[in-house]
Prior knowledge:
The protein is α/β, with parallel strands linked by helices. Helix content is 38%, strand content 17%. The strands form two sheets. Strands 2-3-4-5-6 form a five-stranded parallel sheet. Strands 1-8-7 form a three-stranded parallel sheet, with helices on one face. Helix 7 (183-195) crosses helix 8. The longest helix is centred in the middle third of the chain and has 17 residues, at 75-91. The chain is globular.
Amino acid sequence: xxxxxxxxxxxxxxxxxxxxxxxxxxxxxxxxxxxxxxxxxxxxxxxxxxxxxxxxxxxxxxxxxxxxxxxxxxxxxxxxxxxxxxxxxxxxxxxxxxxxxxxxxxxxxxxxxxxxxxxxxxxxxxxxxxxxxxxxxxxxxxxxxxxxxxxxxxxxxxxxxxxxxxxxxxxxxxxxxxxxxxxxxxxxxxxxxxxxxxxxxxxxxxxxxxxxxxxxxxxxxxxx
Length: 224
């Protein structure tokens, strides 16, 4: 007889939709979005680590100019990778998310660029995550085959063919940032996370109602 072991589930917002002093009381995880535009200073880092409860889980977005350059490796992108990797280490971040716009698609050249980029990340960034909304999951999987990288996905849409030990769920709204999830959709997210076979599941909402949506999912998963 097999014994069911529930995954470790972290529910978060992308960015801080409320003051950090309140956020750290409401949640046990966050996807830091400040790092898309620049690496926060030492004072901010110390304050976040001081305010967060023991066991709080951080993840963070990589600087957006990396994906903006089509993941092409150059002096600037390599420097940005080093900076976010260093900050992630200081924050003991669970993951660093490299997110592209939906318009960056799976062309032959982009597949080559992506493969070379992820190869470069190996050993430099702990737990890199790719979020490529303009790519079918099978195309991302084929491009980064056998490389150590997690593929972010929306559990209400297309999921990877296989999940590893770490699953990263990113929900951007049913039709964009300003759109809202209804309770039925949120219940599906709860059911997916609860039944997920990955050992470690990170669920992050990115839409305008991310605070309320994250609280709903967290409550129905009986977290905190």
